[in-house]
Amino acid sequence: MKALVLGSGGREHALAWKLLASPQIQEVMCVPGNGGTATLPGCRNLGLSLNDFEGIARVALVNNLSLVVVGPEQPLADGITDYLQQQGLKVFGPSQAGAQIEASKAWAKELMMEAGIPTATSEVFTELAPAIAYLEQQPLPIVIKADGLAAGKGVTVAQTREEAIAAVQEAFQGKFGTAGDRVVIEAYLTGQEASVLAVTDGETIIPLMPAQDHKQIGEGDTGPNTGGMGAYAPTPVVTPEILDTIQTQILEPAIAVLKQRGIDYRGVLYAGLMISPNGDPLVIEFNCRFGDPETQVVLPLLETPLDEILLACAEKRLADLPPLRWKPASAACVVAAAEGYPDQYLKGMVIEGLEAAAEQGAVVFHAGTQLHQGQVKASGGRVLTVTALGETFDQALETAYAAIAKIQFESMYYRRDIGFRIR
């Protein structure tokens, strides 16, 4: 069978790589893909835009593709699943109605309240003055979130009243475009963050290996939030007992309410969690797609063929799937970014040392890269994700750092403390 992966980041490279590891997968096409998928054996990039729904459907139908896997959240929020399903295609990714769980934080909060899912108290604002008046009455620190999609950069954890007010002002002044037309202000939660990506066909929901990522640009988890600078799995922060609680108190209630609302949700439900000091999981946010870079550490640990899982979701038969199989190992990844990310950064730098990195035993997933005249060049803020497995976290991290040390490009930056919370 053949599959189509939509997107151009490290997550999509990992999805294509894992699909091609299945004996059932003959070819993977990527729209638009990146420099890594361009050089992946059995993979082919197609120069289409992600908002060209008609062109994507034509490619899938003409090539008799068995499955379309949607990577990023924006096409899901724009309704690509609904469109492709109307053409008779099997799609892994929720409908436009389901994608609201990520596209609107206020909508997601409302769903959590209805489902009785533990989360931080919050209020939603559409005007600056009432938001500031509310902030004046709240304890610090406090969390400010742009309601809509902001590429992982619409959240501020404000330590001071001035910082909180500035974050609200920036959102209403258009820093995040229309994503900031509404602002969610919520209480600050203490504990450790973790990610549980779960696959669902709208009826059954199965959690994947729990992961933990580092969202901030600076070492020691300092500085502005990014799309993620590194990750590891399975995280010891989520014990088997806590995962059972997440399943029964968070994942299953969420799917039940989505179903009650008549929403056909087939894809990933990503729960971004805070594990409190006494082990209680609370939802920080829900996302409607695989996490990045969590996918780059979860999928290398998966032994069950990925296509079997995704097709079972698309065909609403996930309950019939045997229990998922996992490698008895640990995985860690380190993101190589362009200096200046998540703000202004250079592009077009030639990347060297990719083969030498692979020789260290790591897998290098490309994120912001392009293949140009035989050279791989940087084209985004997060450029590469270097992933390694090991019997222990220390071994996995040691291999990942040995590999990333072999890679060079102008203005390359990476954190040297990934995994510090568990080492």
UniProtKB/TrEMBL annotation:
<dbReference type="GO" id="GO:0046872">
    <property type="term" value="F:metal ion binding"/>
</dbReference>
<dbReference type="InterPro" id="IPR016185">
    <property type="entry name" value="PreATP-grasp_dom_sf"/>
</dbReference>
<dbReference type="GO" id="GO:0005524">
    <property type="term" value="F:ATP binding"/>
</dbReference>
<dbReference type="InterPro" id="IPR013815">
    <property type="entry name" value="ATP_grasp_subdomain_1"/>
</dbReference>
<keyword id="KW-0067">ATP-binding</keyword>
<keyword id="KW-0479">Metal-binding</keyword>
<dbReference type="InterPro" id="IPR020559">
    <property type="entry name" value="PRibGlycinamide_synth_CS"/>
</dbReference>
<dbReference type="InterPro" id="IPR020560">
    <property type="entry name" value="PRibGlycinamide_synth_C-dom"/>
</dbReference>
<dbReference type="InterPro" id="IPR011054">
    <property type="entry name" value="Rudment_hybrid_motif"/>
</dbReference>
<comment type="pathway">
    <text>Purine metabolism; IMP biosynthesis via de novo pathway; N(1)-(5-phospho-D-ribosyl)glycinamide from 5-phospho-alpha-D-ribose 1-diphosphate: step 2/2.</text>
</comment>
<dbReference type="InterPro" id="IPR020562">
    <property type="entry name" value="PRibGlycinamide_synth_N"/>
</dbReference>
<dbReference type="Pfam" id="PF01071">
    <property type="entry name" value="GARS_A"/>
</dbReference>
<comment type="similarity">
    <text>Belongs to the GARS family.</text>
</comment>
<keyword id="KW-0658">Purine biosynthesis</keyword>
<keyword id="KW-0464">Manganese</keyword>
<dbReference type="InterPro" id="IPR000115">
    <property type="entry name" value="PRibGlycinamide_synth"/>
</dbReference>
<keyword id="KW-0436">Ligase</keyword>
<dbReference type="GO" id="GO:0004637">
    <property type="term" value="F:phosphoribosylamine-glycine ligase activity"/>
</dbReference>
<dbReference type="InterPro" id="IPR020561">
    <property type="entry name" value="PRibGlycinamid_synth_ATP-grasp"/>
</dbReference>
<dbReference type="GO" id="GO:0006189">
    <property type="term" value="P:'de novo' IMP biosynthetic process"/>
</dbReference>
<dbReference type="Pfam" id="PF02843">
    <property type="entry name" value="GARS_C"/>
</dbReference>
<keyword id="KW-0547">Nucleotide-binding</keyword>
<dbReference type="GO" id="GO:0009113">
    <property type="term" value="P:purine nucleobase biosynthetic process"/>
</dbReference>
<dbReference type="Pfam" id="PF02844">
    <property type="entry name" value="GARS_N"/>
</dbReference>
<dbReference type="InterPro" id="IPR011761">
    <property type="entry name" value="ATP-grasp"/>
</dbReference>
<protein>
    <recommendedName>
        <fullName>Phosphoribosylamine--glycine ligase</fullName>
        <ecNumber>6.3.4.13</ecNumber>
    </recommendedName>
</protein>
<feature type="domain" description="ATP-grasp">
    <location>
        <begin position="109"/>
        <end position="315"/>
    </location>
</feature>
<dbReference type="InterPro" id="IPR037123">
    <property type="entry name" value="PRibGlycinamide_synth_C_sf"/>
</dbReference>
